[in-house]
Amino acid sequence: MFLSLLVYLCCGAVAGVLAGLLGVGGGIVIVPMLVAIFPGQGVPPEYVQQMALGTSLASIMITSISSARAHNARGAVHWDIFRNITPGILVGTFVGGLVATHMPTMFLKIFFICFLFVVSAQMLSNYRPPASRDMPGALGTAGVGGVIGLVSSFVGIGGGTLSVPFMSFCNVPLHHAVGTSAAIGFPIAVAGTLGYIIGGWGRPDLPALSLGFVNLWALLGLAAASYLTAPLGAKLSHALPTAKLKRGFAVFLILVALKMLWGIL
User: Fold this and answer.
1) Gyration radius from the chain CA atoms
2) What pLDDT is stored for residue 145 in this prediction?
3) Residue 215's beta-bridge partner residues?
4) DSSP states of 23-45
5) How far apart are CA 250 and CA 229, in angstroms?
6) What angle do CA 112, 13, 4 make, to 5 degrees?
7) Which of 155, 178, 212, 176 lies closest to 78 in space, CA to CA?
8) Low-confidence ranges of the chain (pLDDT < 50)
9) What is the pLDDT of residue 23?
10) Are 188 and 58 in contact (CB under 8 A)?
11) How far is the C-alpha of 97 from the C-alpha of 263, rounded, in Å?
12) Crossing angle between the packed helical segments 138-155 and 27-37, to the nearest 10 degrees
């Protein structure tokens, strides 16, 4: 058991550094790692993807608090946007997590693979939508939040890949969009985790220390390590050629997606 905890600590450390260094959500790294590890930890094949997604979202609850506090200290969190988008986030992510627990594992894997390809293409092109309008009203922002939450629950991320471009499109300065997205990650993680816990409750053959589709042992290692290493990644981002590293990481994500696709085929 302690050997598996060490593995989860290593995964969390890598995810934390990459999240801080490249500005990508830790979930996009954590999910493929857990998908590779969980079969050897007694997770039934039909539950591997759901367990990876639920555990990834649960770990984001911890890391998003640390990140949001750091951004808020620099005045980079727009709490008015957070307030307007959160109702949609909560509904979309909870419903999405609950629905995902009843979906075939194959569908969730294919959805995640497609998401990796989209994120890789965005990172390679460095495309950002032109800032051409203001934020919509409370109802419109909540509606967008519902979509962001739904997609995030299917791929186990904190939503930054979607919320940052949306806010940038609405004339929110980039570093403020990143800071606000960090805060938005918390309600995404809470609602999504709750959906995966309820949806996985009482399922047979889940390994010990599982709360629905959240593996508590993995959560401990992931959250503890990523919480500590994310600041290190943030410091490295100021000393290393981040743009080149992002392109390299995008290629790595494509290889991960191809490996997962090959496993399905």
Assistant:
1) 17
2) 94
3) 210
4) ---THHHHHHHHHHHGGGGT--G
5) 21
6) 80
7) 176
8) none
9) 57
10) no
11) 24
12) 30
List of residues 6+ apart from 252 with CB closer than 8 A: none
**Sequence spans of domains, the chain:** 1-104+131-240
Q: 260 is written with which tokens?
A: 């997962």
The vertex-120 CA angle with 221 and 97, nearest 5°, equals 50
Residue type, position 173, single letter: P
Q: CA-to-CA distance for 166 and 181, rounded, in angstroms?
A: 10
Strand partners for 211? 214
Q: Rounded distance, CA 17 to CA 226, Å?
A: 7
**Biggest distance spanned by C-alpha atoms of the chain:** 53
CA 18 to chain centre: 12
Burial class (CB within 10 angstroms; exposed 0-12, middle 13-18, buried 19+) of 117: middle
User: Is 126:243 a contact under the CB 8 Å cutoff?
Assistant: yes
108, amino acid identity = L
- The pLDDT of residue 251 is 86
pLDDT (0 to 100) of residue 22: 63
What is the rounded distance in angstroms from the CA atom of residue 53 to the CA atom of residue 111? 12
Distance separating alpha carbons of residues 24 and 113, to the nearest angstrom:
16
Written as one letter, the residue type at 16 is G
Separation CA 171–CA 81 (nearest Å) = 12
Nearest to 244 by CA among 95, 1, 21: 21
CA dihedral over 135, 140, 146, 148, signed as positive or negative: negative
Chain-centre distance for alpha carbon 237 = 20
Instruction: Give CA–CA dist 96/101, Å, rounded.
Output: 9
The 10 Å CB-count burial string (b at 16+, else e) for 246-256 is bbebbeebbeb
The number of residues making up the chain comes to: 265
